[in-house]
Amino acid sequence: MKVLIVGSGGREHAIAYCVSKSRKVDEIYCTPGNAGIAEYAQCAPIGAMEFDKIVAFAKEKEVDLVIVGMDDPLVGGLVDELMAAGIRTFGPRKNAAILEGSKAFSKDLMKKYQIPTAAYENFTDAGKALEYLETVKFPIVLKACGLALGKGVLICNTPEEAKEGVRTIMLDKKFGDAGNEMVIEEFMTGREVSVLSFVDGDTIKTMTSAQDHKRAGDGDTGLNTGGMGTFSPSPFYTKEVEEFCNKYIYQATVDAMKAEGRPFKGVIFFGLMLTKEGPKVLEYNARFGDPEAQVVLPRMKNDIIEVVEACIDGTLNQVDLQFEDNAAVCVVLASEGYPVAYDKGLPISGLEEFKKHEGYYCFHAGTKFDGEQIVTNGGRVLGVTAKGKDLKEARANAYEAAKWVKFDNKYMRHDIGKAIDEA
Q1: What percentage of residues in the chain have a pLDDT greater than 70?
Q2: What angle in degrees, to the nearest 10, is found between the helix axes of 126-133 and 159-166?
Q3: Residue 248 reports pLDDT greater than 60
C-alpha cells in the first residue's frame, strides 16, 4: 500500500512510525511533514489546509489510504474532499469533526444525551456573557468555541479576571474566529485523564489511558500550551472509572453522533475529569492527541493499518485492540519563550542516540532541514519518549534521554509524570 499522512507535528511523526512498521505498507508520503517524519516518508511542501493540492498529490502518487492527523483540515472537510475523489481516508467527515470544531455543539450534544459534563452556557454576545458572569460561582472556565491550538481555555478565579477573559476572547479576538462564540462552564476539580479511541460509526474501542501537562511551567504554572509532556497509562484511570465511562460516556457519544445524522469514523479523544461525583467530559477532540499519541501509539501491539481500515469499513468489532503491559513518558523539548515568542533555525544535535537504544523515541514536532542539518522550526520542537516496566522507570528513562538532545534555548518541564509518585 501507499499511505499519505497529513500533518507536520509529533502526532504525525508517531503515526508515521507506526505506519512504517505495518507489513501492509510499501511507501509513505506526508504533507507537509517535518525533518523527523522524513526518515519514514517522502515529504511534500503542501500545507494541511491546501485541500485541492492534497487531493491532486494523492491522485498523482496513486495513494491507497490517507490518514488525516490534524484538527484544522478535519474540521474544514478534507476527508469529504478526498472521499469525493474516491480516495480511502481515515478521519471524521466535516459534519462529525464538529465534535471538536464547536465546543458549543459538543456541550449541547452532551446535555441532550445526558453524557456527564460540567454545567455551562453558550454565548455569541459579549454583553450577555458579561451579564451572566454576575450570576456564577468562581473560579469559572471560559472557552473559545472553535479551534485554538489547544490554548483557547481560560480559568478565571475572580469576576475581574473573567470579565477580562470575555474581552480577550470575544472582543480582542486573541484566538481569532474561534472566539466568535464562547462557552462559560463550571470549574471542575479532580484528576485529568485522556482516553483516545478508535471508532467506526457504531463500534468504539478505547486505547490505553494517558495524562497531558498543558501549562508551560513546572508545577502547572504559566500559560496554556499545546502540551508539554504526557504519560501512559494513568494510575488514576481505574477499572471502576473505565466501566463507568464505557457505560455512560464512550458508547453514548458514538450513539449520539449517529442519532444526530453525524456518524463518526476515526479517532475520538475523550478529555476526562475524575470528579467527586464521577468522571465527566472536559472536551472532545476528533483526532489523536498531541503529545498523547507519542506515548499511546508506541505501546499499541496492533498493526495500525489494520485498525484504521476496520474503522473505515465498519468492522472494528472484529479487532482485538491490545497494548503492551508497560508504561511510557514523553517530555516535550521546547524553545525558550514558547508559547509566546521564540527563535527558530537553531541546530539540533544528539538525535542519532535514539537509534542505539530500544524503547526510546524522539518524535519531531517543530523541525526542518537546513541543508543536511536538522534545525528548530517551532515552539514545541521534539517529544522525547521512553518506555519502562512501570511509570517511574519510564519517567527516569525519558529524562535521561532528554539529556542526549542539544540545541540553544532548549526548555522543558522537569515534573512530567510527577503525579504518578502520588498515585
Answers
A1: 99
A2: 170
A3: yes
C-alpha cell at 355: 537509534
Task: Report pLDDT digits (tens) over 98-147.
Answer: 999 999 999 999 999 999 999 999 999 999 999 999 999 999 999 998 88
3-class secondary-structure state, position 55: helix
Specify the 3-state DSSP secondary structure of 162.
helix
Strands 182-186 and 120-123: antiparallel
What DSSP string runs through 330-342?
EEEEEETTTTT--
Give one word for 100, left, alpha or beta, with left for phi > 0 and alpha for psi -120 to 50: alpha
β-bridge pairing 380-388 and 360-364: antiparallel
Q: Which residues contact 273 (CB under 8 A, 6 or more apart)?
A: 118, 188, 189, 190, 191, 192, 193, 279, 280, 281, 282
Residues 6+ apart with CB under 8 A from 238: none
Taken in order of first residue, the domains within the chain and their CATH numbers are: 2-91 (3.40.50.20), 119-186 (3.30.1490.20), 191-318 (3.30.470.20), 327-422 (3.90.600.10)
pLDDT digits over 352-405, tens only? Answer: 999 999 999 999 999 999 999 999 999 999 999 999 999 999 999 999 999 999
pLDDT of residue 423: 52
Beta strands in 187-248 (DSSP E): 191-200, 204-212, 215-217, 221-224, 229-232
| CA 154 to chain CA centroid, nearest Å | 19
Report phi then psi at 382, rounded to 5. -140, 155
Cis omega (within 30 of 0) for bond into 291 = yes
H helices then E strands: how many in the chain?
13, 22
**CB neighbourhood size of 246 (10 A):** 13
Instruction: Give Dmax (Cα) for the chain.
Output: 60
- Give residue for cell 467527515: 93
* Averaged pLDDT for residues 52-75: 98
With 0-12 CB in 10 A as exposed, 13-18 as middle and 19+ as buried, what is 341? Answer: exposed
Exposed e or buried b per residue across 42-71, where buried means at least 16 C-beta atoms within 10 angstroms of its C-beta: ebbebebebbeebbebbeeeebbbbbbbbb
State the cell numbers at 197: 479511541
Confidence (pTM): 0.94
